[in-house]
């Protein structure tokens, strides 16, 4: 039986990519779409073989849905949780800027209504592996610089993924890092922000999707971990993985890493095997 999916934020670039992926994935069926800019009507499917209802209100397109996928904003994600959970619809969220309050509300709603909710700062499997490697490597180094680069329309700085990478490094090195201070700062902020000793730099311009680079330093050496998403297709295997998993997993799950190690649907088995090997 196919998993019926509603795409929230369907008019955005990620929403369009999710709709195309769901349309072309065996075992999934797009049944509705919602976007704050939409009016009541229908939207053509990317394969040209039909259309689905679209609305500015998610409530109006939830009938028959198993999963709602959201790539909008923190406020949009919260509204999805409040609309979907009471209707028994599972939720996959990739929106940026999710706050602790939203995580807590998501956990409460998922438990109360016995649905699955998966929230991930990044759905690219390589980025998830980068977070894991940052935690494993950090204890061997005293210095760390983290640079993240995104398209000019990204609303938050640093990215949620960059924060996850930095926090993973700090988890592996609880004492934190040394952040050298310039004797003369000719331009204020030239060294970027500092997060417990990790220097963090955010770059924004057209032509980029998502790029993260973490450089550790020690006497006479550096160690670099980098991940690049060169297009939005890079996130889709992770989205498919989450949709397949969320219908079988009750409660709140934070991070794609929690399901990569236990997935039976993932076509990219080499990522799963590598992750399991690293976790041992």
TrEMBL record:
Record's signal peptide: none
Listed GO CC annotations: cytosol
Catalytic function, reaction form: (S)-2,3,4,5-tetrahydrodipicolinate + NADP(+) + H2O = (2S,4S)-4-hydroxy-2,3,4,5-tetrahydrodipicolinate + NADPH + H(+); (S)-2,3,4,5-tetrahydrodipicolinate + NAD(+) + H2O = (2S,4S)-4-hydroxy-2,3,4,5-tetrahydrodipicolinate + NADH + H(+)
Molecular functions (GO terms): 4-hydroxy-tetrahydrodipicolinate reductase
PROSITE patterns found in the cross-reference section: DAPB
EC code: 1.17.1.8
Domain of life where this protein originates: Eukaryota
Record has Amino-acid biosynthesis as a keyword: yes
InterPro entries the UniProt entry points to: DapB_C (IPR022663), DapB_N (IPR000846), DapB_N_CS (IPR022664), DHDPR_bac (IPR023940), NAD(P)-bd_dom_sf (IPR036291)
GO biological process: diaminopimelate biosynthetic process; lysine biosynthetic process via diaminopimelate
Record bears the keyword Zinc-finger: no
Record-stated family: Belongs to the DapB family.
Name of protein: 4-hydroxy-tetrahydrodipicolinate reductase
The organism's taxonomic lineage, starting at the top: Eukaryota, Metazoa, Porifera, Demospongiae, Heteroscleromorpha
